[in-house]
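Bumping with the actual sequence this time:
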Amino acid sequence: MSSHREAPEISKDPVADSTDVYAFVSPDKPDTVTIIANYIPLQQPDGGPNFYEFGDDVSYTIHISHGGKAARDISYRFDFSTKIRNPKTFLYNTGQIKNLGDATWNRPQVYSVSRTENGRTTMLARNLPCPPVNVGKRSTPDYASLSAQAVQKVGNRTFFAGQRADAFHVDLGSVFDLGGLRPFNEAHLLPLAKMDGINSVQSYNVHTIALQVPITDLTRYHDRPTDVLAPQSVIGVWTAAARRASRVYSAKTGKYAGFGPYRQVSRLANPLFNEVLVPMAEKDMWNTRSPAQDKIYAKYVDRPELQQLLPVLYPGVFPNLAAYDKPRADLNAILLTGIPKGVVPGFQNYTGATQADMVRLNVAVPPSQEPNDLGIIGGDLAGFPNGRRINDDVVTIELRAIAGATIPLVDKSFTPDGAATAVTDGTTNTNAAVTDSFPYLGLPGGGYQTIPGTTEAS
């Protein structure tokens, strides 16, 4: 959660496990879109001597759909390569790392980026550098500088791949303890004392793949739309990771080698989709499918299990929700088709009748001057589920949607329960502060200076 350990098989393969996808019109460069795909969840900053890194045997891709059929109209692919400079030491670094080219960094990683559109693939760059992880004050004394060196501009596109602070916040310990929400503990079927939520992700790092590209790079007609209600103003975004079809262990090298074509092993778009809506027995197969095949999962969106559980876990709190037996057209629109015109005044992010889990972004909606972390339900059309910004409180937004707060958008006869607009896991963004410029996510916590439960990055 968001999707840090969302399916049985991919939870055993963290290097290929995507945790969050963000897509938004860049606040400081509003003629561009920033897309961020995070991988390798729940990284302890002090995880040496074999620190976290992207997989050389994993192909990471960010897909964009703009044709209304949830197809891979444009794809950016990232492939990584790692080398060992000094094979005679066990150390990640043999001295201070002040620049990405320093020989003291024993395990540097680089990557290539290619772009595919209309079946034609163009190699955009090779050997772009990743930064090292934030080892600590001695090893990486000026981590902000190292990270900045890894922001690479290639033509009119900018890329970054490396470690950052996780920006997601959620009370995992309570939510997965029989659906507990600490601020509402006293109302639970098994009551406990009321308390504030605890951010379980605080102090952890992730590995980020980020790109910032002109809006014209992603839209159907390669223009910059200005009409919010025009279909061509909306793009769909998701990320996927793939491995070779087979792996063989070599006793000679002590490593696995991959053979055969690449096969998708994970994907992610909307937060919590596979995590909360798809049953456990189908989660692994969901990760192998493309969004265009998601019609088979619509039944779990139309009648979500959590909707049935809330009135049971919180007796008497959700009587209207308990009595509601219609398919959830509101959730179907939010998660599978986009919101059509006429539902939210002056807004739409509809991508067509194909039901598909994608982050849908209307690029004609400008960045908000006063962002509300509740996004559209908070009156901010530039926020989730119109794309997803880093500070959007997606757990609260989706909890309130499932609890019935968004049903009146499509069914005026329904009156939400009072709790529907108040329900929350009680966490706030206590992670490392985001930055004002690309790649926006905060600097990762350092191994030496991070105390578990804190977010100090330097």
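The tokens above came from a reply further down the thread. The mean pLDDT is 95.
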